[in-house]
Each structure stands twice: as C-alpha cells, then as structure tokens.
Design a protein that fits this description.
Elements lengths: L4 H4 L2 H7 L6 E5 L5 H14 L7 E5 L2 H14 L8 E4 H12 L10 E2 L2 H14 L10 H14 L3 H7 L8 H17 L2 E2 L1 H14 L1 H10 L2 E4 L7 H10 L6 E5 L13 H5 L1 H4 L4 E5 L1 E2 L4 H11 L11 E2 L9 E5 L2 H17 L7 E5 L6 H10 L3 E3 L9 H14 L4 H8 L7 H10 L9 H10 L2 H17 L6 H22 L3 H16 L4 H23 L7 E5 H4 L4 E6 L10 H7 L3 H11 L2 E10 L1 E3 L5 E3 L4 H4 L7 E5 L38 E3 L2 E3 L4
Parallel strand pairs: 1-7, 1-8, 2-3, 2-6, 4-5, 6-7, 9-10, 11-16, 11-19, 12-14, 12-15, 13-14, 15-16
Antiparallel strand pairs: 17-18, 20-21
Helix pairs in contact: 2-3, 3-4, 5-10, 6-7, 6-9, 7-8, 8-9, 10-11, 10-12, 15-28, 16-17, 17-25, 18-19, 19-20, 21-22, 22-23, 23-24
C-alpha cells in the first residue's frame, strides 16, 4: 500500500515530492517543511519502484541524514534499507574505500581527526626548524589550507589573498603545507578535507569509478543546497550527469556562510547548469505569525538577485507586531533585554523558549553581564563567553597586573605572551619577583626585566614603561594607552601567529576597551568580570551535572540557523554592527548581511524584538551616534511598533541636542570620523554612559 502523500503534504510540497524525473530545484523558504518534503521525495521514489541502492541522499550533518533515513524507513516499512545517505564526506569516504588504489592509497587508508592533524602539522613546523612562537600556530596553518581546499582555489593564490592578515610570508606557509601534504601521503592517510578532494578527484580521473557511480545513482538528492561549496557542487553535478535526476532543496534567502566557503552562485545558477530544471517554491510557513513574516518579506525584497518568494502564514493567530526598541546605549539595551526576558517569562514562556541573537559574540558582552546580575540563567551557543576567550583573557590579565589586583597567575599569563617565554620560564620569573611586582616602582620593573630571557626584554621594556605611567593618567585613557602599547610592542604580532583572522580579534579588544570605558573605573570593570566568569563556570558545572534547568539562549545568528524560538530578541541593530562593517568591506555589498537579518527574523515564532542603541561607547570613553541599521530603515513603519526607552523622543538626541536627565539640552559636535558625531573628555553622564561634550 502506497503512502497517501496528498493527504500528508500541502500542494507545493506534494508537487516537489512527486515531481517527475529530471533536475529539480525546491526553493524551501524558512519554516516551510523542507525536511518533510525531502523525506517524502525519497518515499515517493521508493514506492515508485526505484531500488533503494540507486538513491543517494547528501546532507551536511550525520544527524540530518539519520533523521531522514529513519523517517523514510518508517514510512515505507523498510524499503529504504540500502539507500546511500550521509554527509558529503562520509559518502566520498565510502567511494574511496572501493577505489582507493586508483589514487595510490590502500583501501584501509587512515583518516586523521583534528588532534591528529594538529599533531602532524606541529611536527612539520618543528622539523622546519621553527620554535612554537616563531611561526603561526598549527591551527592557523591548517585553517588556511582548509580555506583554499574548500574554495577549490590553489593554496598559493589563497595565501596571496590573505597576505594582509598573515605574519609570515606565503612562501614559508606554503612550504609547511606542502610538507604536511607529503607526510599524509607517506602515512597513507587523509584528513577530513582530503575525503572530498580525493572523492572528486576519483570521479574526475578514474573512468571506471565515475561510470560505476554515475550508473548506480539513478537519483541524487541534496539537502541545504545553498550551503554547498565549489567542491560539493561539482561532486553533485558529476554524479548526476548520466541520468540527470538531481533534486536539490535549499533557499537562496538563507545563504549566509560565504566566509567559510559556501558559494551563492551554486543555487542561483543551478537551472543554467541543469537545463530543463523544474522549480518548485515552498512558501507556506508553519513557524511564525503573520506580522513576523510580513517584516521578513519586506526586508529580503531589497536584495536584487534572488528567486522571489513570499512567506505566507499557516498559523491563524493574528500575533503582535514586531517591536523596534530604541535605547540610549549598550548598557540600557542590556537592561531592556533583562526586562523583556522577565516580561515573557511572566507571560508564560519558558526560559528555553527565549533567544537573544546578535551578529558577533562581542555584541553580547553587556547582555551576559546584565542577565548574570539579574540571576537569569542563560547558555551561549559557542560554549565560550566573551570574557573566556583567550585574547580577551590576555588583556584582562594585563589590566589586573596594572591595577595590582591580580596575582602571579595574571602576571605569568602576560609573560607567556613574550618571545622566548614558555610556561616554565614564566612560573620561574613569577617566583623570583615574588608574585606581582609594583607597576609604579622602577626598581620592581627593572628586576622583572632582568629575569627575562634577552629576546623578551625589548618588547617588555616598552610595556614596562607604560605600566609605570599607568597610574598617573586619567581613566579611561590610561587603559587605552596601555593596551595600545601592549599591541604595538608584541601582542599584535602574537595575534597574527595565533589566529587566522587577527583583525577580528583586535576588534574584540577594541570592543573590550569600550566596555571598560563604560565603567566607573578599571577596578569596577574587573569586579564585573569576576562576577560574570564565576557565574558562567557555575552554570557550566550545573549543565555538566545535568542540572542546567531552563536557560535563555544567547547565540550569533549564524549559529542559530535551523533553530526556532517563540520569542527572539535581536540586539545591536546599528550600522557597522549589523550589518557588519567588515563584512560589507570584504564582500562589496550588503546582500549576505540582509540574508542574515532575514534568517534572524524568521527564527521567531510568536514575538520579535529589534533593539537599536542610539549611542556606542568608544575605547577612550567618548561616544558616537549609532546610526539605525539600514535593515530597519528599509522596513515600512506600519510593520512594527516603536518603543523608545530613556529617550525624550526618537530624534531629540540628534536634532541639535539631546535629552539628558533633568531636561538639560546641549549641542552636539558633528566632527567625528566618517561623518559620525563625536565627543571628547569632559562631559556628563546620561543613561549610564558619559557623553563627552566639546565644551
């Protein structure tokens, strides 16, 4: 007895699931039942008589593959047994086991996991004669190599493109990568990227293997096609070339991973590469209420190149309009986040039904602290809070040394960042200077310098001099000057060796300085950090013990893709933050950033809050106007309700003055960088932030 698909699927899903042979592009907009449609496409093929062994299902996660295969198996009472399904890498591995000798590998070749790769690259770097601090970290070298491989570009070309962020010449990096590749071959081993590279190479170069698999797979189905990179797209095209039955499911509106190699053109050009493609659009949304969908539709419509789609609600409840909340600054925004969480908890939502989303991890600093102080349990998708990131902890340790509030551990951490200072040497020096020297004492600083290895003395001398001046400057400028010297003396070079994207790490540090400047003093900031990190550790311990309870989730939008919550609070909707200034510069346009905003909005089922601070704090304690995100400006005002928190009116701050507590008005300087208004030291406090005025 065949499954009654017409009773289980809506008309568009049914059309996609039962489409005749030939290329098929299913454009599944957010929340429209993509997985369900793909599963029933498999069911239809099996019940139509296609043998399971002649169907290939490609996914991006093993979990997705297992879920789809189990559902197909259940729906067909076991007909799906024998179907090839899994990630691109697992399918390539299966093919290579059958034909490895054609590429010079034994069938039982080894697969290197992440630890194996790091160990092997570390050995290669050591054999080249470099000490750990003299060469980029092995993780950085491996990431650069993977970036080239997954974009299907020559490694040398990729390194030339990345030259501005590299500490070493491309030639040195290329030598290490070549030796790493040779070492793998000598070991008869492949790493994760090699599986796809060699799987595609097998299909390109070996006629027997290519003809075998092209003939075998009568139907090739692909999930999340918009996320494919150049290698994966070609892998699909080659396998489906003989029979032409390639069915891909994806959404061009949700292509947001170009930074890790995904290629937008794959889905846009699919009909051109596969003449006669049938296109089916899934637009009935089963997730969100109508006002949220109206806002998402209005936003994404501004992208010039797309397959036009309009999300249509299936939920009958009317729903509240999304709410645009304007606040004075980041701290006021964090306070409002806490209030919104409490409001929705009081309305009956559980903590795990609420998510706070943001463009980058550093955007969540104030929110983390505010939630921790309020006793609201939260979890972070990355598992690592902002203040637990290594480069942030390095700067915090430096500040503890400068303030004299740290201990030997803080000093040892800073010393280990210097050339020629390892863990043992740092611990020995700390013991010799008796824990923590007096930063203002020249004698104390000189004693520490004499204990350092010769190669570390010059960079330390610059930092030591600044530490001596630290206490005689005004807050927060003294913190900014100290960190500037720290970066210039040796830490910027360290960032370039330790991270593939050092500019992003330095940007984190600048945001950290802005956060410090928003405090009354450096000591107050350090107290807040101690509170936050201790609460984070306590929450992590409870989670590990299975006692996490309901938690509000804090997540970047990228990590939230594929998830949904009844309540979504989207923060920092300002130009330069969301959209990201760096992303606009790197990509030369705002299309992908707008798709990212669309993804964020469509995570919400019932309630959507869009928060815009009108001020951003600068590292020196001044402020500049935070212009409203273009994504908010593009949306008709009838599609959201507006709320101003702590502002006399939406424009009062910038119409020749601002509304301060007590009603005081003052002119604003409009001489800031890039046309932004800017203020310098000597101002008043409004909403917890010092406004530095020009008088």
């Amino acid at each position: 007895m065949k499954t009654d698909l017409a009773a289980l699927l809506n008309p568009e899903q049914f059309e996609a699931a039962t489409a005749p042979d030939g290329p098929l592009l299913v454009l599944a907009a957010a929340g429209t039942g993509k997985t369900r449609t793909l599963v029933y496409r498999v069911v239809h093929l099996l019940e139509r008589g296609v043998p399971a062994g002649r169907i290939l299902l490609l996914t991006f996660t093993n979990r997705a593959a297992r879920e789809m295969l189990e559902r197909a198996q259940s729906a067909t009472l076991g007909l799906a047994g024998g179907l090839w399904g899994g990630t691109f890498h697992s399918v390539a591995n299966r093919m290579l086991r059958l034909h490895a000798r054609a590429l010079g590998f034994p069938p039982d070749f080894a697969i290197l996991d992440a630890d194996d790769q790091r160990s092997l690259m570390g050995r290669v770097i050591k054999d080249l004669g470099y000490k750990p601090k003299e060469f980029p970290k092995r993780e950085v070298v491996l990431s650069l190599l993977s970036g080239a491989v997954n974009r299907n570009v020559p490694v040398a070309d990729w390194l030339e493109r990345r030259a501005a962020t590299l500490d070493e010449t491309p030639e040195k990096l290329l030598e290490a990568m070549d030796r790493y590749q040779a070492a793998k071959r000598d070991m008869h081993a492949m790493d994760f990227d090699d599986l796809l590279v060699n799987g595609l190479r097998l299909l390109r170069e070996n006629d027997e293997a290519r003809e075998r698999f092209q003939e075998r797979f009568l139907h090739v189905l692909v999930d999340e096609y918009q996320d494919t990179n150049a290698l994966q797209s070609e892998f699909v095209d080659v396998l489906g070339a003989r029979h032409g039955n390639v069915s891909v499911v994806g959404d061009d509106f949700q292509c947001i991973y170009s930074w890790r190699g995904s290629e937008y053109r794959n889905i846009m050009d699919f009909p051109e590469r596969h003449p006669g493609t049938r296109i089916v659009k899934l637009e009935r949304n089963y997730r969100s209420k109508k006002p949220i969908l109206d806002l998402a539709n209005a936003s994404i419509a501004h992208n010039p190149e797309q397959f036009p789609k309009t999300l249509r609600p299936t939920r009958e409840e009317k729903g509240a309009l999304p709410r645009l909340v304007e606040v004075s600054d980041g701290r006021a925004q964090a306070a409002r986040v806490v209030e919104l969480v409490r409001e929705n908890l009081a309305a009956g939502y559980r903590p795990d039904q609420i998510a706070v989303l943001y463009r980058a991890h550093y955007n969540a600093v104030d929110a983390q602290l505010a939630l921790a102080r309020a006793g609201v349990k939260y979890a972070i998708t990355s598992g690592t809070g902002f203040y637990e990131m290594a480069h942030v902890k390095d700067v915090v340790s430096l500040l503890r040394v400068a303030e004299g509030t740290g201990d030997g551990l803080s000093l040892a951490r800073v010393l280990r960042l210097l050339p020629a200072v390892g863990e043992a040497t740092a611990d020995k020096i700390v013991r010799k200077v008796d824990g923590l020297p007096d930063p203002e004492s020249e004698t104390s600083r000189e004693a520490l310098a004499e204990a350092l290895p010769p190669r570390a003395r010059v960079p330390w001398s610059k930092l030591g001099e600044e530490l001596g001046r630290y206490g005689h400057k005004a807050f927060p400028e003294r913190v900014g000057d100290l960190v500037d010297v720290f970066l210039d003396a040796f830490y910027r070079e360290r960032l370039r060796k330790d991270y593939e994207n050092p500019d992003e790490r330095e940007n984190d540090i600048r945001e950290l300085l802005a956060d410090i400047a928003g405090h009354e003093s450096a000591k107050a900031f350090l107290s807040d950090v101690a509170l936050l990190t201790n609460l984070d550790r306590e929450a992590a311990a409870k989670a590990a013990a299975g006692d996490a309870g309901g938690t509000v989730l804090l997540s970047t939008v990228h990590q939230a893709k594929g998830l949904e919550w009844p309540v979504v609070i989207l923060i920092w909707l300002c130009e330069g933050v969301f959209p990201s200034a760096r992303a606009l510069e790197d990509r030369g346009g705002d299309d992908e950033e707008r798709r990212l905003f669309y993804v964020a909005a469509t995570r919400a089922k019932d309630r959507l809050y869009l928060l815009h601070p009108t001020l951003r704090t600068m590292p020196d304690g001044g402020c500049f106007r935070a212009e409203t995100s273009r994504f908010l400006k593009e949306i008709p005002t009838t599609l959201y309700e507006r709320e101003s928190v702590g502002l006399d009116s939406a424009d009062d701050w910038w119409s020749g003055g601002f509304g301060a507590r007590g009603g005081r008005k003052a002119p604003v300087s409009r001489l800031g960088p890039a046309g932004e208004p800017s203020w310098r030291p000597g101002g008043i406090r409004v909403g917890g932030v010092r406004l530095n005025l020009p008088f």
